[in-house]
Amino acid sequence: MKERVQLGAVQETLLIPLWARAVDFLKPYSILKDAQAAELVKRIDYDFSKFAGAWKSQVGCCLRGAIFDQWTRAELAQDPEMLVVEIGAGLDTRYERLGGAARRWIDLDLPDTMALRRRFFAENSQRRFVEGSVLEADWVNPVREMAEGHPIAFVTDGVFIYFSEEDVKRLFGLLARHFPGSSLLFDNLGPAMVKHQSTHDSVTKTAAKFAWGMADVRQVETWGLPCTLEQTASFFDAPQEALRNLLWMERAMLLLSKWMKYRLNRVRFGGSHP
């Protein structure tokens, strides 16, 4: 029997990257090779066919995943004891895709989403599930306990696009205050992508709305926080094996997203980790 899902408007969007990875797995030249995503789609009672024509989102989700996988793997290579915190984990499989590279991992999401996640994934001695709103501080102590004084890398994959600018600033402030020395991976839309979201090929199939975008990601360094932009990229910076077999129309989408100021970023908060 398939698992039924009941999620809020924004939480429902977690099914878009899941669907994207499942479709990717069935392609001759898969970017992420995420067999687990394909199995999860089979087990969930949801009309994934509504996303059938959303090829731009499908490719974009997988390239974003590949870039953030690569960046996370690089951070773990520097310190295998680093704690990775996946903010807005949804039904993501990054922990599995990294193949045990992380010895400390937290998946963080809202209670209803985490209840769904627990139906398909299990905690272990290296991986913990934490429920809560990232905009509150209830999850700070569990993260500190799991880190045990080691560095922390936070990952938000397709999350901030549904936040207001004030909410993004609030989270930046929380991380700067409680986790100096930590890094944060996030993606951002350009203002034009927010303005013209009615043409988006997948999010328009849900009740969710884009809420925030910025033309220049360096803006985060002007927010009055000890925050430094260490890296910013476009889809063209994905691993070459992910780009090699893209169709011409998919490559054109990469150009359009770069022109519309879509970026993938890493920032670091000043100070030493606690």
Question: What do these coordinates show?
Answer:
The longest helix has 24 residues, at about 55-80. The chain has a single domain (about 5-270), classed as Vaccinia Virus protein VP39 (Rossmann fold, 3-Layer(aba) Sandwich). The termini are far apart. The chain is α/β, with parallel strands linked by helices and about 270 residues long. Helix 2 packs across helix 3. About 40% of the residues lie in helices and about 15% in strands.
Cα-atom radius of gyration:
18 Å
Total domain units? 1
**Biggest sheet: strand arrangement:** 5-4-3-6-7-9-8
Characterize the largest beta sheet: strand count, sense, and whether it forms a barrel.
7 strands, mixed
Specify the number of helices: 11
Number of E-type strands: 9
CATH architecture: 3-Layer(aba) Sandwich
Say what the CATH topology is.
Rossmann fold
N-to-C CA distance: 46 Å
State the name of the first-level CATH class.
Answer: Alpha Beta
Order of helices and strands: EHHHEHEHEHEHEHEHEHHE
Chart the SSEs and their pairings:
Elements: E1 3-4, H1 9-12, H2 15-25, H3 35-43, E2 44-45, H4 55-78, E3 83-87, H5 94-97, E4 104-109, H6 111-118, E5 127-131, H7 140-147, E6 152-156, H8 165-178, E7 183-188, H9 191-195, E8 227-233, H10 240-243, H11 248-259, E9 263-269
Parallel strand pairs: 1-2, 3-4, 3-6, 4-5, 6-7
Antiparallel strand pairs: 7-9, 8-9
Helix pairs in contact: 2-3, 2-4
